[in-house]
Amino acid sequence: MAQLSDDCFAFGGPMMSVDEAVGLITARVTAVGETERVALVEADGRILAREVVAPLPLPPFTNSAVDGYAVQASDLPRGKEQAFPVAGRVPAGASATAARPGQAVRIFTGAPMPQGTDTVFMQEDVRIDASGNVVLPAGLKAGANVRPAGEDIPEGHVALRAGQRLRPQDIALAAAFGLTELDVTRRIRVVVFSTGDELASPGKPRGAAQLFDSNRFMLMAMLRRLGCEVGDLGIMRDAREPLAAALKEVASRHDLILTTGGVSTGEEDHVKAGVESAGSLVLWRMAIKPGRPVAMGIIGGTPFIGLPGNPVASFVTFVHVVRPTVLALSGAAPSPFVPMPVRAAFTYKKKSGRREYVRAVLRRAEDGALEALKFPREGAGLLSSLVDTDGLVELGETVTRVEPGERVGFLGYANLL
Ligand code: AMP
Ligand code: MG
Predict the structure, then answer these.
(1) Do the domain assignments include residue 245?
(2) Do 373 and 294 share a structural domain?
(3) Best probe residue, ligand 1, of 195, 236, 260 (max atoms within 8 Å of C-beta)
(4) Ligand nearest to the CA of 196
């Protein structure tokens, strides 16, 4: 599974902007290519592998948009109301009838337009006179209240594009075409492990100087949301050779290896050494806060990403490094984030030249505008700062300070995955 070319030393260099890093990753990753056919509902959240061309127009036949009376446009009353005999009745699902000039046909929403008619009066706008004729008012436009065949989607139109991530409305469209299955790219297989002698697995005894491993579960949940098949390798001790052996062992069975912790340059950061021994490694720093060095490499042809250990840094770098990698592996079209403009309700100073993400709560101000409130503390180890906020305020490279009342871009957590 060689998805990343070997010249990934191009990832090196002292400090890389987020856009540069994402560009490099996505340019170097080759999509897995294998596809599978799944039932419509199973296709939700998956990446469409082949475009869907409309096999029929939508709606498939011209029909009435309302309950009422269908007539021919040349008969439309001009100047004053006019009575018409009612020549027939077409409920939804009935086959189309025909009408002659001077006749009206009782019709219901979704029923096919009778031949010889092209305009429908809403039943609320008409009355029935003593002799049972329908009295139609003057002033209706020709073609009113009719849904022409193909007005939604014409036959032959590319209705769903390859590479798009399927949503419920896309699945509705496939169903409207009469399809029962869709071709999607197969799920990306990712194996995850944590590193650190200070970590204990939830459910196991915790030593006095240990904390429970939380990142692994966050990362596995995030990968699931991206549609990945996730393998859990647990916690690896801080030691080069066992790490290298484990990395080599899992590489052939996975499309991506993901780790957290141990990628700084301290002497207890053994992931670096483990990857160097098992394959090739590049450590690089993104100009992003929170975030620290991220390791990237190739082991037996399989891409490797080592995220930092601090939970918030791990979360933010996942979003900017792992997500685009997974999307590229699954052949998905790139989907950059679109921050929502909100009003800052905080003061903030930052260095120019790097991008920062401020954890924030959204609230509605008295004037109705949406305001972002900064989480009061900033540590990259604070899980509560992710749990008790709604998303991240994105402050671009050129920003150096934020004052209350300024407009900032907000990314809700739900939109990040
Ligand atoms: P490291 O990147 O290994 O230097 O770790 C940085 C900080 O993150 C340390 O305080 C670690 O204890 C913490 N940390 C590392 N891995 C995890 C994890 N899987 N879950 C929670 N905290 C972690
Ligand atoms: Mg560590």
Answers:
(1) yes
(2) no
(3) 260
(4) 2
